[in-house]
Design a protein that fits this description.
Order of helices and strands: EEEHEEH
Strand content: 25-35%
Number of helices: 2
Radius of gyration: 13 Å
Distance between the termini: 17 Å
Number of domains: 1
Helix content: 10-25%
Low-confidence stretches: none
Strand order of the largest sheet: 3-5-4
Length: 76
Amino acid sequence: MFTNMGLHIIKNPAGTFSFVGSIPQELGAKVKPTSSDIMAGRYFMDGKTAYAVKFPVFKTREDAVNHAEKSGFTVI
């Protein structure tokens, strides 16, 4: 398993923090895809079930790093 895939954290204009780069699916949550997810090709198939992956936004950079490390990934 790769633990460092170019995962970075940025500070968003709203003051929150999120992942950018090659984000592993394990850091997100599987959700039902919206019609815009489907039209833009941002969904996956698990058998006959479609899903999209949505990634969390964090209040602090440390929260984002902790989330990644709990899942076995390293932030660079």
